[in-house]
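WARN no homologs supplied; continuing
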Amino acid sequence: MPQALGIDFKEFKDFYEILNKVREGDKIQISNVTSEIRTNQLRKWGYAPSYDHKYLLEVGLSSRELMKYIEKIDYIQMEKTLKSKNPYIKSLDVYDVHHVILGNYVQENDPNEKKIIDKVLSSQKDYIIKNEDGFISKEYIFIKTFANVLDDSKKVIRLEYDYNAIYKKIHETNIKLLMLMFICIFISLIVVFLVASNMIIKPITRLIKHIQKFSYKDLSSKLEVEGTNEISQLAASFNEMSLKLKKTLISKENIKTINKELTEENIKDWLTKIYNKKYLSKYLMYAEELAKINNSELSVIMCDIDFFKVVNDEYGHPMEDVVLQEVASIIEKNIRTEDLLDGMEEKNS
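OK structure emitted
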């Protein structure tokens, strides 16, 4: 007496709906060869409704009996054959709707692989994954061997490619090309050296010797310019540079003068020419330390110009500047050499 397989078809929604339609109808449905959900062995099934349509009769042809009439597909041998004909195929696996790898009858456990397989089965469209070089690394191909709705003949073929052989060939080709290129460059350099020795090297040598003698103390010497080639143009440019350098060369004394002027501009007020507040802060620190060392007194006198705004209101900014300059000049002429005159604030408008 056959025993129930213990399969709850309600877990397979689509198939369960098909079985209900058969139970409610009047026709007997015979499936094509399919794989059993529990054992994954090939079986063949027949379904017929009871006279009151309350039950469904299932008749199955055992796997052993079925093998007498069909030739079993050897998936492992198929993979070996394809790999021998295509060296870029790394692996080939055929999945059924239950994620079982046919031939090995091993359940796929990778959730990502299951997700892709389910996507291919539901969309019935192929799916590819490319590597960083743009080549196809994995390819999932949808196939359906039978059109009958009562079978699970949907399959997914997963092909994984290995491009190491291609990369190796490309690498070998690149090495050969590089070697050939270096040989050609080396030969070309020898030819160029022999041909251009008298035309380039000797004039360049003369130019280098002249440049080595070049000094800012002697800018009058010139190079001889012969012909119109690149070396002659370089010599002419060098002579022109020497002439311009001679005209624009600044003496050390001029540099000192300019440096002094820049320093005074930084620590003195541009209008009154007296020291600014920034300089006073530093000077006071120095004077205080000096007074402590010499045990001498240090005094600070502050003065202000009364009614200064009246001058601005009645005579304008130009006269205000004149007043500031004159006051600063009068005070500076009446202080000692060791005294420091400083402006604390900018003028008010």
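Residues 167-248 form one domain.
OK
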